[in-house]
Amino acid sequence: MQEKGSISIHTENIFPIIKKFLYSDHEIFLRELVSNAVDATQKLKSLGQLGEFKGELGELKVKVSVDKEARTITISDRGLGMTAEEIKKYINQIAFSGATEFVEKYKEKDAAAKDQIIGQFGLGFYSAFMVAKEVEIFSRSYKEDTEAAHWVCDGSTEFSLETTEKADRGTDVVLHVAEDSDEFLESQRLKGILTKYCKFLPIEIEFEGEVINQTQPIWTKQPSELTDEDYTKFYQELYPFSEPPLFWIHLNVDYPFNLTGILYFPKVKDELQFQRNKIQLYSRQVFITDEVKDVVPEFLMLLHGVIDSPDIPLNVSRSFLQADAAVRKINQYITKKVADKLSELFRKDRTGYEQKWSDIGLFVKYGMLSDEKFYDKAKDFALVQNVAGKLFTLPEYQEFVQANQQDKNGQTVILYTTDAEAQHGFVQAAQDRGYDVLELNGPLDAHFIGQLEQKLEKTTFKRVDADTVSKLIEKEEATESMLSEEDKTKLGEVFKQAISNEHMHVQVDALSPQDAPVIITLPEFMRRMKDMQRAGGGGGMQMFGNFPDTYTVSVNANHPVAQRVLNAESDAGSKLARQAFDLALLAQGLLKGEALTAFVKRSADLLAAE
To answer: Residue 511: what pLDDT?
Structure first.
């Protein structure tokens, strides 16, 4: 039997389209051909289990070989095989509807149309022509009394098909590599591709006498079959140079979608690791991509591990995820599993959970900010830490400070610092009043504070250096001023003239004599906006970066220095006021350059005068 004919695709242009547009990454030809061989092998195993194939299965390996001199790559399997009629059906007639419309869309290089294609067209085999100038198929069906067939195509739409001799069932696909694809004749290049895409395929893949894959990766097993050592060992295989993970979540669901996998919470030391170690997406153990932003919630993109689902829709080249209802359901399922795991860890081993908080806090806060359902679960296991290092849940902390840190309007005021060292004086002043201070210095904390103020009833947050301590939490009883209104006005004028800065708003306040003589603060609103901007608030908050800081200068009417300034001669009083102001600048880290030099000289003069 010998036959010649045309591949039924209704166009002369399909191959350049496949080569240039559909499969832009040429190396995936090997993934497609090996996947086809694995499928054929698995189908034969299934027929054997059903009793529809009664022969000996024998060794079921897919073998890949390269002959650099002959310029060929061969992919061989001992699976179902094909008769000549089946080759005509499955290879010659590219099995998709609307072929003409499909080709027209690609002629226009319509990226949107390309992304809408789904992987049902059977075009994987034709990826071979990205690297081959001619492709041969030698195939013999598992069915009895059938002849082997030999198919040849040179990359045009013409083919030849004839009977041939082949001792064993299965299929050999032989690629005659084109001159512009010499890289694929190198053994190391092929091994690299096989390791990347086929490392976990369910049928053994042999290349140059070596099996390169694990046929039963641990995500295909039940958690009850696995030990902690199994999970950590697998993590090291995925990310060889990373520290052991903090913990992991085993995903295993078959309704309403199929999904397996393992997500690891990593111990990350720097941002480069975030970028390097990504979650890997597989479909039936074939590696697809590590760009999983639609499948995994954005706040969990910092996790590591593997997700495997045949239900995630891909375009025909498997290069792009199709966002649809199934993907959204998977996304929601993963969110729920992560929340449940964190809740379980918190309930079962709070001490261990607290020890991990510095590593997982970023994930939890990001999740609370970006996903309402996650917030609802996480509010009971999210932690905050005070400057003494003690950790609280949000409800615990509200209860802890409610009695002492309630202002005259019944609002619970939560004090926080973004830098306990730099703001030490303000922290100390708050603690001297018996107040507690949280440390909120993470990259998301500016946004997190805003969210908590919206969510927590009758609660507000104030940075500890946003005002004098008596004004941070205003009580019914007010400290009385030791100065008359006339003296307060006079004192304010002396400081305004000594400071002579339009961005420093001077006010005279009745503070405790134990407080500093002058306290400089940036109002909470302005601080909040600047913190949000630094944290990537964007939008309208960018405007605050263009305005100079306007500070409040609180002169303590009840401090002995106030009386000394009022009693001194004009020049001496102004000099003393400036000295007190510079001390306040120094406490805020705002005294620099020429002003710092002048302060040091003035201090030396005052010491000498004493």
So the answer is: 85
Q: Is 53 annotated as a binding residue?
A: no
Compute CA distances 541 → 365, 368, 419, 523, 529, whole Å.
21, 21, 22, 16, 6
pTM of the model: 0.76
The answer to whether 375 touches 367, Cβ cutoff 8 Å, is: yes
Helix (H, G, I), strand (E, B) or coil at 551: strand
Computed on alpha carbons and rounded to an integer, the radius of gyration of the chain in Å comes to 36
Q: Which of 314 and 397 is assigned the larger pLDDT?
A: 397
Identify the domain containing residue 292 by its residue range: 218-345
Query: Has 476 been labeled as part of a binding site?
Result: no
Q: In this structure, are residues 362 and 448 in contact, taking their beta carbons and an 8 Å threshold?
A: no
Rounded CA-CA distance 387/417 in Å is 8
| Same domain? 463 vs 447 | yes
Q: Known binder of ligand: residue 367?
A: no
In a domain, 539, yes or no: no
Q: Is residue 23 part of a domain?
A: yes
Domain co-membership, 200 together with 223: no
Question: Is residue 194 marked as binding?
Answer: no
502-523 mean pLDDT: 87
Does 70 map to a domain? yes
Q: Note whether 194 and 262 are same-domain residues.
A: no
For residue 124, say whether it is annotated as part of any ligand binding site: yes
Could you report the per-residue pLDDT of 376-394, keeping only the tens digit for each? 999 999 999 999 999 999 9
Of 250 and 476, more confident: 250
* Whether residue 251 sits in one domain with residue 137: no
* 171 annotated as belonging to a binding site for a ligand: yes
On whether 32 is known to bind a ligand per the annotation, the reply is yes
Extract the runs of DSSP E, i.e. beta strands, from 484-550. Answer: 504-509, 518-521
Pairing mode, if any, of strands 412-417 and 459-463?
parallel
Q: Do the annotations mark residue 371 as ligand-binding? A: no
Average pLDDT of span 170-182 = 95
Residue 13 has what pLDDT? 52
Eight-class DSSP state of 169: S
Asked if residue 477 belongs to a domain, the reply is no
Residue 51 counted as an annotated binding residue: no
How many domains does the chain fold into?
4
Task: Show the DSSP H helices in 159-314 as ranges.
Answer: 187-198, 228-238, 271-276
Please check whether residues 169 and 132 belong to one and the same domain.
yes
SS3 content of the chain, % helix, strand, coil (to 5): 45, 20, 35
Is 332 labelled a binding residue? no
Residue 119 annotated as binding?
A: no
d(CA 326, CA 331): 9
Q: CATH number, domain at 602?
A: 1.20.120.790
